[in-house]
Design a protein that fits this description.
The chain is mostly helical. It has helices spanning 6-31, 51-95. The chain crosses the membrane at residues 12-34, 65-84.
């Protein structure tokens, strides 16, 4: 069953590939506790009296954000699979295969 045209399927495939690449890299950087993402994780909201209380909470936020990126990348993989299926289906109908 055709849901997407051939051009739309190709566009969605390219967009999905970019999303997979970007979110995987972001997940790796977040999992390695890159300081670049500190502002996005609202680390200033963590109430702690010492560095020993602060670090486990900060690391937990980093790892949670990394897992969210990897889950989103998996959703993009599903979108890529669907888009490629639509592209192949359109080509089969177009060329009578």
């Amino acid at each position: 069953m055709i849901i997407l045209s051939k051009r739309v399927a190709m566009f969605c495939s390219l967009l999905s590939a970019w999303g997979i690449l970007m979110l995987t890299i972001m997940g790796i950087l977040l999992y390695s506790h890159a300081v670049t993402f500190a502002e996005d994780l609202n680390l200033h909201e963590i109430e702690s009296n010492s560095i020993r209380e602060f670090l486990p909470d900060a690391f937990q936020r980093y790892e949670s954000a990394a897992h969210n990126c990897w889950i989103a990348a998996c959703l993009y993989i599903a979108t890529l699979a669907f888009s490629m299926h639509q592209y192949v289906t359109n080509r089969r109908i177009q060329y009578g295969l």
